[in-house]
Amino acid sequence: MGCDGCNDSFARRKVIPVTTLNIAKKALWLHDEGLQQLLHCLSENGEEARVVGGAVRNQLLGYPVNDIDIATTCVPDEIIKRVSEKGFKAVPTGYEHGTITVVVNGHSYEVTALRADIEPDGRRAKVIFGRDWKTDAKRRDFTINAIYADANGKIYDDVNGLADIESETLRFIGTAEERIREDYLRILRFFRLYAWVGKGRPDAEAIKACARLKDGLLQLSAERVWSEVKKMLSAPDPTRALLWMRQAAILGIILPETEKWGIDAFRPLIETERVMRLPPDPLLRLFSIVPRDEVRLKKMAERLRFSKLEKTRLMDFARISPIKYNSSDIEIKKLVYHHGKQAVLDELTLALSNARAHALSNDNALVEASHYTRLRKLAEHYEVPVFPLTGKDLLPLGITEGPAIGHKLKALEKRWVESGFLLDRKALLDLATA
Predict the structure, then answer these.
(1) DSSP string of 258-321?
(2) What one-character DSSP code corresponds to residue 90?
(3) pLDDT-based confidence at 12, cuts 50/70/90?
(4) Closest Cα partner for 197 from 158, 161, 248?
(5) Contact by Cβ (8 Å): 98, 129
(6) First-to-last C-alpha distance (Å) of the chain
(7) What is the pLDDT of residues 80-124, one digit of tens each?
(8) Which of 345, 169, 326, 325 is nearest to 335 (CA)?
(9) How far apart (Å, rounded) are the C-alpha atoms in residues 425 and 284?
(10) pLDDT over 90 (residue 404)
(11) Residue 75 in contact with residue 129, Cβ under 8 Å?
(12) Which of 62, 173, 288, 326 could form a disulfide with 14 if both were Cys (CB 3.0 to 4.6 A apart)?
């Protein structure tokens, strides 16, 4: 999870009861011809293959299924041999750890040999391949991720995962501390999955273990940390997960920027997204809980290895000034022109959520929220105009090429913006010669 595309049906999902021992009737994805061919070719001549992890978990929880992982008794070389003979593409994406990505009819499946992890160092582990399904299940992270289904839909559960599915409990397999020491990223995976599927208070043993071992997060690569945080922030409502992360002193390790700023603005933003029917936006949600400090946010983007697009959006957010609720339409249009539509929408959405947070106890805030709603719709649908002049238009006027043209264009563009984008090409050329 992400939850593999759960947002659209989050409210409509229905958890399957633990008495369900076969998912074939409702799991339409299981009947895909390519998937069935792959499972059967890995199950011939005494071998066996089963779907495992997120696909089975999501099916049982009532979420959509997108990514499908497969476990098999075949070792990596045998996986490659068998799928290649069937004409499927095999990519050794994680060969040393037993994982081969298999492409069938344009769909990718991660196929992993049954294994046991040995000599873990908190980030990775050496592995030995085997044929015991229970051993493979016990080396996984959470009970709800260690449920298998064969090609016929029959369920296999060696870790009591079905009971945890029904109660929507997120629980480590075996001892939480032992599982975390194998890979400290599991701390963040715990809160990420809790944000998506957790119900009620989180497992007490898990929270205590995460808090005790939180310093292990410092060993992880920035890319892995940001990937997990972003997936958590994409959940329909990760508020409780964030609160428990703060309670366990984990939030301050991965996002120290939130320590003095707090996360009080987070819940109003979630509610605003719901009312405005906006999709969960992990970046905007992050903006709501960090200070608008360009220097600190630049360091945060570098530390977490933001993508170029993510960093650009973050810096645009840091640089744009707060927008007043009584701003005129033309002021909003000018802001969109100068800062880009996304930055203005981000600022207006946060301003709207802040106003909504105070609307119940403050009539003025209710008025502000109404104005911000209108301004946001204006910015969302505004088509940014194109400046009607280029340098070539100035050459016939005797303006020499080089810096002079650039300075003149900049001055004319400023006049054009100040006019509310009303000056046309002829009027601008007349100004150029004045």
Answers:
(1) HHHH-STTHHHHHHHHHHHTPPP-HHHHHHTTS---HHHHHHHHHHTT--HHHHHHHHHHHHSP
(2) E
(3) very low
(4) 161
(5) yes
(6) 63
(7) 999 999 999 999 999 988 999 999 999 999 999 998 876 665 556
(8) 345
(9) 38
(10) no
(11) yes
(12) 62
> What torsion do the CA atoms of 261, 263, 265, 269 make, to the nearest 10 degrees?
140
Query: Any idea which residue has 């963040």 for tokens?
Result: 188
Phi, psi of 120 (to 5 degrees): -70, 150
What token pair was written down for 331? 């002021």
Q: Can you give the pTM of this predicted structure?
A: 0.85
Tally of CA atoms within 13 A in the half-sphere of 36 that contains its CB: 10
Q: How far is residue 36 from each of residues 29, 32, 70, 202, 230, measured CA to CA in Å?
A: 10, 6, 11, 37, 33
**Single-letter amino acid, residue 196:** W
What's the farthest any 2 CA atoms get from each other in the chain? 89
Query: What's the token pair of residue 386?
Result: 């194109």
pLDDT classification of 200: cutoffs 50, 70, 90: confident
Helix (H) / strand (E) containing 427: helix 425-433
All structural domains of the chain: 8-167 (3.30.460.10), 391-433 (no CATH)
Backbone phi, then psi, for 18, in 5-degree steps? -65, -15
Contacts 24+ apart (CB under 8 A), 113-121: 113/71, 113/72, 113/73, 113/74, 113/75, 113/76, 113/79, 114/71, 114/72, 114/73, 115/139, 117/182, 120/181, 120/182, 120/183
Could you report the per-residue pLDDT of 360-376, keeping only the tens digit for each? Answer: 667 788 889 999 999 99
Q: How far apart are CA 38 and CA 42, in angstroms?
A: 6
Q: Tokens for 192?
A: 């990420």
What residues contact 414, with CB distance under 8 A and at least 6 apart?
none
Owner of token pair 């043993």: 205
Q: List the structure tokens of 52.
A: 């495992």
Distance CA 404, CA 387 (A): 18
Q: 142 or 361: whose pLDDT is higher?
A: 142
